[in-house]
Amino acid sequence: MPRMSDKDREEFKIAILEEISAGKVRRGIKQTELAQKCGIPNATFSYRVKHPGTFRIDELLAIANVLDISPARLCGRVT
Question: What letter does residue 66 receive in the DSSP assignment?
Answer without folding.
Answer: H
